[in-house]
Amino acid sequence: MSYATEKLREEKVFKDPVHRYVHVRDRVIWDLIGTKEFQRLRRIKQLGTTYLTFHGAEHSRFAHSLGVYEIVHRIVDDVFKGRTGWDESDRLLSLCAALLHDLGHGPFSHAFEKVFQLDHEQFTQAIILGDTEVNQVLSMVDKDFPTKVAEVIAKTSDKKLVVSLISSQIDADRMDYLLRDAYYTGVSYGHFDIERIMRVMRPTEEQVVFKKSGMHAVEDYIMSRYQMYWQVYFHPVSRSAEVILTKILQRAKVLYENSYEFKHEPTHFLSFFQGKPTLEDYLKLDEAVVLYYFQVWQEEGDAILKDLCYRFLNRHLFKYIEFDPASQYKMFMELIPLFKKAGIDPDYYLVLDSSSDLPYDFYRPGEEGERLPIQLIMPNNDFRELSRESEIVEAISGKRRTDHKLYYPADLLRDESTNQATKRQIKQLLGVAHKY
Amino acid sequence: MSYATEKLREEKVFKDPVHRYVHVRDRVIWDLIGTKEFQRLRRIKQLGTTYLTFHGAEHSRFAHSLGVYEIVHRIVDDVFKGRTGWDESDRLLSLCAALLHDLGHGPFSHAFEKVFQLDHEQFTQAIILGDTEVNQVLSMVDKDFPTKVAEVIAKTSDKKLVVSLISSQIDADRMDYLLRDAYYTGVSYGHFDIERIMRVMRPTEEQVVFKKSGMHAVEDYIMSRYQMYWQVYFHPVSRSAEVILTKILQRAKVLYENSYEFKHEPTHFLSFFQGKPTLEDYLKLDEAVVLYYFQVWQEEGDAILKDLCYRFLNRHLFKYIEFDPASQYKMFMELIPLFKKAGIDPDYYLVLDSSSDLPYDFYRPGEEGERLPIQLIMPNNDFRELSRESEIVEAISGKRRTDHKLYYPADLLRDESTNQATKRQIKQLLGVAHKY
Amino acid sequence: MSYATEKLREEKVFKDPVHRYVHVRDRVIWDLIGTKEFQRLRRIKQLGTTYLTFHGAEHSRFAHSLGVYEIVHRIVDDVFKGRTGWDESDRLLSLCAALLHDLGHGPFSHAFEKVFQLDHEQFTQAIILGDTEVNQVLSMVDKDFPTKVAEVIAKTSDKKLVVSLISSQIDADRMDYLLRDAYYTGVSYGHFDIERIMRVMRPTEEQVVFKKSGMHAVEDYIMSRYQMYWQVYFHPVSRSAEVILTKILQRAKVLYENSYEFKHEPTHFLSFFQGKPTLEDYLKLDEAVVLYYFQVWQEEGDAILKDLCYRFLNRHLFKYIEFDPASQYKMFMELIPLFKKAGIDPDYYLVLDSSSDLPYDFYRPGEEGERLPIQLIMPNNDFRELSRESEIVEAISGKRRTDHKLYYPADLLRDESTNQATKRQIKQLLGVAHKY
Amino acid sequence: MSYATEKLREEKVFKDPVHRYVHVRDRVIWDLIGTKEFQRLRRIKQLGTTYLTFHGAEHSRFAHSLGVYEIVHRIVDDVFKGRTGWDESDRLLSLCAALLHDLGHGPFSHAFEKVFQLDHEQFTQAIILGDTEVNQVLSMVDKDFPTKVAEVIAKTSDKKLVVSLISSQIDADRMDYLLRDAYYTGVSYGHFDIERIMRVMRPTEEQVVFKKSGMHAVEDYIMSRYQMYWQVYFHPVSRSAEVILTKILQRAKVLYENSYEFKHEPTHFLSFFQGKPTLEDYLKLDEAVVLYYFQVWQEEGDAILKDLCYRFLNRHLFKYIEFDPASQYKMFMELIPLFKKAGIDPDYYLVLDSSSDLPYDFYRPGEEGERLPIQLIMPNNDFRELSRESEIVEAISGKRRTDHKLYYPADLLRDESTNQATKRQIKQLLGVAHKY
């Protein structure tokens, strides 16, 4: 028996609150889970700073990755197996790509990617193809296997069906995170009937398609996704924490660039500040390390770094107002000098933040950001794009919604012991004069 | 209006997966939650190393503390309010004690307490009574208030009813953690009808008692507790992680005592090694800091420290056999020199571990470890101790169950490239010769 | 103490799967539940024939009525109490109207109302105002109280706020049935966060309004409602059972009108056939009685009545095709003579059935079918109609969706032992020739 | 392809709240579900009169039978398939026996069996072996197949493994009803981890056994069973309804035997009164028919029959006191003449009722009521009886618990307009003098 088809003597199970159990029978999957690069995902929260808003959201990318694996496992072994359109030899490739799709995520990815101009997808590729335990395991299947897995995750693979299982408008990744994030935050949005959706999935050469009889379950998934985005992912308080986190990283980088003398040498950050972290550097940076630095930076001499770290760790967040870029940009420009005058650095304490989502998009061939639409198979075997069949999806299709907020430190403005007049002027402009 | 009775303008709610919402209306409670000592509980997992066995168990002591508060809040405001036996002036005391009861927990408490001879309960006292933000808030209620809260948590208060709400054989603490740990691990044990239990609670001078009509719900709670202990809390794999963690701390301490030169100065640990951490030192030590050190210690020169840290972070745990102290102690004594001979230090790699629990105890006045029994109020208003009324509780009452396991590194024994004969002898003694 | 304010010595609770517990403390409510007119609702299924499609949907109108009461109870006692805009003297009126709002429902209401031209709302009025146990209880509160309750249910009351609690586009009735029907059928649509919605409700003179911060929960409710309609209430198989039921009643009425001699005198139906059931007749007719007749009618001499009853009881339902009135009406007209030629009476065996729903409607003052829209209270205390604030609700607002199906007995057409040619012609027209 | 192995073109699914979906692929199973004898189970409640205590408990034996089928289906197709000890040729036999095991249940079985001395198990045999649609379907598999299925259900089959799947101390029947009854009543007892239990089941020639690693899930099942018995099945209020139901049937029988002239001829009951219902008579008697008669009997001339029917339909139940046969039998004997003197017939209005349960029994070979114990397979492949391994099961093993109650009509005693002195004497004896 080859390594690719080797089975464990006894199936291993992980108790999972979302899927009840995650089942592993393949030796390759078991070995991948045991690698240090995969175990590292235990130390990275799935939802970054969201736990500061929803205290239950402390689950890791490790759990999510197992969940995506389990969904794909059920699809290929319970639904696709034996059906026309499904090539059994793509099974292991699908399972590995599902398990490893988020491998390159670092701690608080969005903020890190923004400040240090990184791309977690490139690190996923690097881990799979580089000198790692994960690469060793995959290479034992076949010397080309790491490349194949990496291509599926990068969506450059010609195995379009497998790609669509992992990344499309309705894929195992999204289905797991919506259910999992709903479970851990405790919100009641985010539930949909995944069992029904899996049951109506059908393999085709180009992508996974869905039997018409399951359309309502798919609609429900899209509505859940819409609700989770606005209720959880773009929650203004989480975004406030994210803003502060970003500003900490930005400040630390600026200090480094200005040859600031850190009391505590930021060893783990140096290559990030320099803009060229190696894979090894990157893999060392988990959330524990980041939070460790934030703690010691509370004792740095730089007042801004110190204050921002204190805010983040002790959840003294910024407040916000709704912001309309069209009508209020002038006001924003006026605030900048006022902040300076009040002794509050606007580069770190006056932050515009925008969130934007497109809940579902139909097919716009050739257009930028083209997305594969969801296809239904009708009783007569024709295909039909979801938004043409579902009125509710049609109604929200292609409509991008954007939300702007302006964040500021209410506590500093409330304190009128210094710069009273300027602070009052600021509060007037922000429209919060009556509050503090 | 005094600070003690001040209400927030709008009730604040925390979305909580276990109780759906945690409601805060009291200014005191809101301010306590905002203190840095309380926020620090976000960085300490409720179940320590259990996440290495149940990957969902990543919830923090912050969430649990809010949950205990919410339960007491519902008991006093929805059930006790207006009843004979309940003194409304104990309300705020009860809420504060509930919220703060675990404040002194550090990261991975059990291992730290064992190796460094600490006591988290003493730190809870120290935080409440010392120079902290928590103390400042409590002192604003009344200058004696911190002491009163501390006494309830220490069980030295003469407010016996309030004490029994927080610590007894069926209290808000246990009820929250059983439900919460079941939710996050995903196990189906651990559920019981808390709403029913709260509804049948009645205040008396000595303790909370329970209407007879709710006896079955109480039975169910005791069975849940029993199951959670043996299925989750004493799970042999979690204990393996705990064993390794303990050995890491022990090794680091030994190295320090032997003036080992750490490549990376263990600043945060020094006062622990020296046996006298200050409150300030203690509060700085959260899980992020501990995991940060474990990561850098992977690069230390000491092979044992390095290996144990690698094992913990990458979940390369020890295996175990069931161990019967009566009949197998001799075998254990024989293994020690064999381990040495095989080049594996038995002080760190051959570990006996025992778990023990008493699911429910009736009243044994004067005996050591005396526990307040659960009292039922019968329809005729008599009190009756639970185990006299419930056959199922009677059956398990006072029966301590103990479980012993012997942990060892199977991977080192499997590798027969060195010390083959000795290792085979060890495996023979352990009864695992056929396995590797 | 007056009867209106009398409390039970101990609160009574009903265990309820949807709301966990239904709590009763008011003597009036307890007495109403004990009346025979209310207990009769135990013998009437909430979802009529739906149990033939979703076998779990066997719950009664009794359970639903308790649920609506409980929701209103929580709103007025936990949310409204003490708020501006809420008049505590409307409390009992609200509770009674909630409990009794469906009192006039008979078995399989829709079919009975259609065939016998009845109106369950008129019977609700008649029970509340007539010579009944319910009327006796209500009259003990005050001699005008029955009328007041009846007016709220009839929506003619000038207590607009109370009316809107029971009947509006988001009321206690709908919230209970969506949650309850989802629970009993087992579908995962239909869940929404009722606790959140209740919490953001605010009383105004004209109607209940909702704080803007709860908008997403309201959106979720509207989506749930949409899904339940199309997935459960308009499920084509349930409609098939409904079609057969209607045809049974129609046939029995026709037979009676044609002086057919029933083997088993249909005593309970006589006044219905004659078009003038008294209140007493109406109250006797529960589902047990109807199903009893259907069973004995299986032994009648009339072949159509006998066959339809057999079909209903043993779930031998009609099949259906999608039907487009615009393009297929001619086909339908051609089928009628062909059915006759094949010996299958088209009056009973060829049935067009349509379902139609308007998921949400904004305000169209003066237009027919005008519905009170859902109003949000914005942070600045302005009101704003939901569809102007929610893009997702705006998208489906005012859009009526209609679905037509043509039902026929596939088994009779499959049997080609007689009228082969005609039956083949019919199947050709129906487009199902290839199936049988 | 033979009928026994014929598959449906598309799998059929039933939405089920307990198992999410019930899946049917076998033509035989689908045809059995469509028979009129099986559809009849829709008109018989799983829990008889319990809906008068737990209003949610309105589910039918139809739903339960599908559930038992689904559990066995998952065990044999997901767990046993391909394992040593499992004979694939027993698959269809297992599925059919599971589906049909309760086929002979009539409405309110216990009361009917008691009064008319019937045995639903004999009717199950009669339906399977007699001239029925079920028999026709089973005979198409093989002419001996009906007998084989009947033998498994009667436990006389030599297929001991198959028998143990359907009837043992932990079988598919019990697992389904515990979960289902918990779901519909809404109680939180009754939940256990069925997925885990199924996963650790192993086939042996003699019976299903359980891997030791699943012991705690099995313990949890036994505790759930214990709780459900005392909390739901033996609930004193349900027993009150059962008492009244039994007395109705008894009264009607006595009247018939005394040639009472019924206003409404009790056609459906005649053969029951005569002690020899045919299979045809039996199958006609569903709950609708019984409730129909109870309604018309409310208008009979006999005061007792009329009153009891009124009580049952409108839930005017008897009250009860705890009764100790040893010390209170004399009191009971004194009550009888007092009831007569007060004009209340003690044969119908003074009723002793006992419930008794043995939560788990170890093996007592040769003893009466011998039950197959639950066997664990230890890691070394030895078998071990559950109560020897589980302390909690050992504690309750073999301990029968019995509960006696005395039921009486409190309302009649409360009314002191007649026989005041005697009624007061009765209330004195019952110990309820202070209440009314």
From TrEMBL, chains A, B, C, D:
Pfam families tied to this protein: HD, HD_assoc_2
Signal peptide annotation: none
Residue ranges of domain HD in the record: 61-178
CDD domains linked: HDc
Name of the protein this chain belongs to: HD domain-containing protein
Naturally occurring in which organism (per UniProt): Pallidibacillus pasinlerensis
